[in-house]
Each structure stands twice: as structure tokens, then as C-alpha cells.
Amino acid sequence: MRWMVLLTALASVGCTHLRSFSVTTIPEDRSRPVEAAGQRIVVLGINATNDFADTLVADLAEQCPDGRVSGIITRYEVAMVVPIFAYAHRVYVSGHCVTATGVGAQ
Amino acid sequence: MEHSAPYGVTMSPLLLALSTIGCMKMHAIQVGEIDAKAVENGERFEIKLSAIGVSTEDLGDIAEKLSRSRESRDETAIVSDIIELSQLGPRTGEPVFNPQFADRLHREILTRCPSGRVTGLVTIRETADYPGITGEIVKAVGYCGGEQ
Prior knowledge:
The structure holds two protein chains of two kinds.
Chain A: H1 2-12, E1 16-23, E2 33-43, H2 56-62, E3 68-82, E4 86-98
Antiparallel strand pairs in A: 1-3, 2-4, 3-4
Chain B: E1 3-4, E2 10-11, H1 13-19, E3 23-31, E4 34-35, H2 36-41, E5 43-54, H3 56-66, H4 70-85, H5 105-112, E6 118-129, E7 133-144
Antiparallel strand pairs in B: 1-2, 3-6, 5-7, 6-7
């Protein structure tokens, strides 16, 4: 019985769940990729706001001045940090910087 | 210190306080196309559309605890289980009375940004969780690029 509990505990460590995924129109020019991420560790499910994702757009825009960020992939996942006690909520965004001349901003 | 409740149910003041804290659960997030200039110079806006959700599981638990006799507790548990089983299937959050509550989002966005030059639009589906009821929310955050 003790071994089963231990094995179950070990098997559950590191579990990651994909909550949502989306992608926008992918541009022809994909020479300059950009990315950003936001994360929060939620303990015992207590989480007052989801503002950890608020800076993602500004982070991407900063990496692509004078251009547009297109082909944006948004991935939201939840990973177990400490079983039952703490989970990491992560949002990754990546895209491609496109300028009017077709060359990525430097 | 513990307050005694009928039928052996006890709850410490700390647990009682914790149960009243609303927790925000995120279900999905989507980031739209970004125009860096408009993000830098435009005006940021945030729109929240929401509906009240009903947690059939929580309400069943509360009704069970308030039941006066064991027989009535068992009956409440059966009814609660039947209602909960009828809610099976993929979903986000709790059931709402009007599932079209967020359909007016595009109109709200155009009200906040009459030029229509919206960029960096982040759409978030989240739930504010309280005992028994929930706030089912669709949030949109974006930047308005102003007149063309």
C-alpha cells in the first residue's frame, strides 16, 4: 500500500496540462521571431487576479518597434509544482515581427 | 476557537474566512495581432462582460449540511448528484442562465474605440469563484489606435 501511494505521488509530479491554445494569421516573412511569457505560482488555488498576463502585448510590441507582430501563438498551460499544494500557471506567446519593407525590425 | 454547528459540523473562523475569498480561475487566453506603434501611442482599454454562474455541486453540499435529518440529507445528496451528472461534458466555469452574455463584446469594443483601429487585443475567459455562485467573465484588453 505504501509503495502504491509513493508511486502515485511520483507519477503525479511534473504533470502539465494545456488549458488553451490559439494562433493568428501566419505572415509570409518569418525571419524575426519574437516571444514573451508570464507566470504565476498559485498556492492552494487562491488567486486574486490573472494580471500576470497583462504585460504580454507590451513585451511583444517592445521587441518589434515600427512593425507588426503577426502569426501569434498563445499557449496557456498549468504545471504541478508541489502536488495538491501549488501549481504554476504559464502563458507563452510567440510571433513574427513584420515591417512595411518586409524585413524584421532590428 | 471553533463554532459548533448542528449535526457535528464544525468550522473554524479561519476556514470560514478563507471560504469567502473569491478566487479567479483562468480558462483560456488569446492574443491578437499587434501593431507596435498603436500599442505605444494608443489608448489602452479593458472590457469585462459577466454573468452569474450557479455551482450545483456547492449548492448541493450546502443543502446537505442544512438538512435536519439523515434521511433528508441522503435525499438531498441523491438530487444533487443527479443534477451534477446532468451537467457532464466539456465546459468552462459553471452553468449560466444566458450563455450569450458575451455576444455584445464587439459592440462594446467599438464603443470604446470608435475608430475601429484596435490592436493587441487579448481575450480572456475567466471565473470568479465564490461559495455557491460564480462570476463567469469574458475580458478583453486592447489598444485603440485613434483616428486614421
